[in-house]
């Protein structure tokens, strides 16, 4: 071999691996679900008991069967509805109810909002886990490309030099993809929490204050 | 002129007059509630009587653990992402000093004489011993991975630090700075608190979802207190902050996304009651008379007020984005 062989990708690989670990929020070790990237422990499903102390939620009653409730759920659960706007809709809805049916109907409405919030939240969680898998895949690809680069001397010429240049370009592309996913993940981790916060606001609007 | 400023000037004439002046000048409920807002990078200062906001003070990035100085004049703040400790002067309500720490300070505890801060630096597996007056780190104590919870015995001789990843409570001799015992607890221990008599240490485990009551002399677990709430899944129950009443009768444990505070009978070590508070309850602090307990709720962005005699939640008050730590200044 002539000249120095440049083995520069190793720090990059180490950096990416460290960065990948740091995606877990710098605090949470992969104790349970290895695909869950956020700092807080994954709560797979939001449960009624966490939020609800109002009238008992009717057992075995489908909230979709009451069109008024179904409409309220549809009006409040989409992601782009703010907690304030949804709460106002709930308050307006509550005013339309007779005292005799109010507690039971509001409990039914909560069960519908909970179901649909969980459904939306499931999609976010699936997306986050997919992002984790994607990062893991990118990290593996970077390692593979690094091996390719290391196998070709930095001062290679001809076809070898061309392959090396191609590998360096691919590595730069993969690194950018990794960084972009990392940034996306940071914000994506907030989405389930935002849904939880809104569900809490709705639960408070649907039941009397403690 | 603010009452505290006036009293500070009176105290220039005779130091003991400060407390007396405050006692005379301020109504019985004059405590101030101090809350660190992790996302807003602020400390919210609320009037304990009216629960109205007095001031929102900007501080360094990601404030989490906060602790009051022994004289009640300053608040020490772990600004985790700024990698240091800030000192909030409670008279002027401005940050007046910055103290060093290791990287990512999260929680700390004050020595009983008020001179030292023991700081858990989550990112370097060290506990820093910080001399407050001198503003310098005296020593770094190597502990387990991702140190977090910090408690000091009432006599100041033993420090307990929990490490999130190693799942241990490390007992450290504060004279030698050596680890003298390790107690294995459940997954992701977050908080440690000594009882007033120094005989027990309570350690919460977030993933384990329980609290280990440890015999502080024998370094053995007396009991693990488990929590079960009807209609709430077990993975939602994540034990974090602990508050132990001075009279030795009650303990309160924040249960994170279960949105509950558990009330525990200290004699039987059984759960008496669960109180529904705001969402993702992190930490707890008593009012000086212990008639009220304040909780920070990180998702609903508010604090809840618990009446400790009736064991009821009486009010919730918005404080800012992602409230985390809480302290009460008399």
Q: Can you characterise this structure?
A:
The complex is a heterodimer of chains A (210) and B (330). With 210 residues, chain A is mainly α. Chain A has helices spanning 9-22, 67-76, 83-95, 99-151, 158-188, 190-206. In chain A, α1 (9-22) packs antiparallel against α4. The radius of gyration of chain A is 26 Å and the shape is rod-shaped. Chain B is mainly β. Chain B is built from two helices and 28 strands. The two termini of chain B are 19 Å apart.
Overall tally of structural domains of chain A = 1
Average of per-residue pLDDT values of chain B: 91
Q: Largest beta sheet of chain A, briefly?
A: none
Specify which chain pair forms the largest interface: A-B, 25 and 31 residues
Number of strands of chain A: 0
Give, in order, the helices and strands of chain A: HHHHHH
User: Strand fraction band of chain A?
Assistant: under 5%
Class by alpha and beta content of chain B: mainly beta
Quaternary organisation: heterodimer
Distance between termini of chain B? Answer: 19 Å
Poorly predicted runs of 5 or more residues of chain A: 1-30
Helix content of chain B: under 10%
Brief sketch in words of this structure:
With 210 residues, chain A is mainly α. Chain A has 6 helices and no strands.
Kindly list the characteristics that best describe this protein.
heterodimer, A: 210 residues, mainly alpha, 66% helix, rod-shaped, disordered N terminus, B: 330 residues, mainly beta, 4-stranded antiparallel sheet, 2 helices, 28 strands
How are the SSEs placed, and which strands pair?
The complex is a heterodimer of chains A (210) and B (330).
Chain A: H1 9-22, H2 67-76, H3 83-95, H4 99-151, H5 158-188, H6 190-206
Helix pairs in contact in A: 1-4, 2-4, 3-6, 4-5, 4-6
Chain B: H1 3-13, H2 17-25, E1 32-37, E2 42-47, E3 53-58, E4 63-68, E5 74-79, E6 84-89, E7 94-100, E8 105-110, E9 116-121, E10 126-131, E11 136-142, E12 147-152, E13 158-163, E14 168-173, E15 178-184, E16 189-194, E17 200-205, E18 210-215, E19 220-226, E20 242-244, E21 250-254, E22 260-265, E23 270-276, E24 281-286, E25 292-297, E26 302-307, E27 312-318, E28 323-329
Helix pairs in contact in B: 1-2
